[in-house]
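A protein record pairs a chain with a discrete description of its three-dimensional fold. The shape at a given residue is found from the number at the same position. Here is what such a record looks like in full:
>
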Amino acid sequence: MRRLSITTPVRIPRADHNISRSRLSRAALHTLYGLKDAGYDALLVGGSVRDLLLGLDPKDFDVATNALPEEVKDVFKRSRLIGRRFRLAHVRLGPEVIEVATFRSAPRTPDESDIEDEDNGTEDTDNGAGGDAAHVLDDSGRILRDNVYGSLEEDAFRRDFTVNALYYDIRDFAVVDYVGGIEDLQARRLRLIGDPATRYREDPVRMLRAVRFASKLGFTIDESACAPIHELKHLLVDVPPARLFEECLKLFLNADAEANFDGLQHYGLFEQMFPQVADGLDSEAGELAERLIRLALRSTAERVRADKSVTPGFLFAAFFWLPVEVRAQALAAEGMPRAQALAAACDQVMSEQSSRVAIPRRFSGMQADIWHMQVRFEARRGKRPFRLMEHKRFRAAYDFLLLRAEAGDAPQELADWWTRFQEVSDEERQEMAQSAPGQEGGGGRRRRRRRRR
């Protein structure tokens, strides 16, 4: 078992910090006071406390308590228990959900009889903890189960970074610090609790979290936390692909997307998640591919700042465009029609990628539509451009065409033509479609008209 040096915590009284209950959401206060009134300890914990101390507005609030998940469910009617790997309670008030976790203790090394197949941690269940209330590590040190409950002190030492192990106590409104998180917060430093290599082995996703928090907060990663990453980056291969997809959403669908991309490349983590994309970036066409990816990341960041909707389908279309194009060109060289070659390449590339980061079908389908429409943009004569504009993915595909043109991967004349085609009147569109250059077809075989008998 990893030994913990439990010490007397630093308690920062209300007068010496800037957290006010007025900055907590109604659902967070409802959960904290509901548990307190039921006789349990309840403290705000993690990123919300960190962000409040930094003067930021938290996106969500997490609560730590000595109440067992079943007891939390008894306190709140609108709650449910989720997960097996990490058993949690979700308390709902209106549209907001508060995640409530019972204080946990440190991991222990497993007996052979303890090791079980890992669950993704997202399955809903209403069963009690019962015999599942255990946590074990596999042979590489990765946590398989984490349901051994402990004290507040033990819970603090099992968290990842010191700045994420700060608690706000609703009883006296003090900030509680067992691990030197306040000092690191003031130094704007990310430091792991305990031995960094051990903590990364317990959960390799912590390497991705280090990059993401450093970008988001403008912190530096402590040298001790940086040192083991290159040696242990291969452990990401063992993380469930569905979980890595969720981490990708946190890394790339925000205002720090490009900084996260740089951080992942710097530490060699990007190639573990997207090996085909990384190989393309190292090829002769890598400079063009990287321009396209960076433009897509910047576009996503701008939309996030403007509070506009974003989708991973568009972003991943930029990520995989080069691998798909290379594969499609190889198939076309063997005699396959361009549109058919592109479809086959899309299937092959995404099938290989699914073993690393599993992209759900609703997003991979959008990617495929965006890619196929790049071929159809070349056909501007007759009725085809009118039909293309009616496609539900037209706007996303058009935006992707603009990025390709800006990156130097598509003719600027083609992008300008489609921009003007959307702006002019129907009569002018008819004239543009009649006088447009290029083929009338979409890259595939033209359908032969059947002769009447």
User: Anything to note?
Assistant: The first strand starts at residue 10 and ends at 12. The two ends are 85 Å apart (CA to CA).
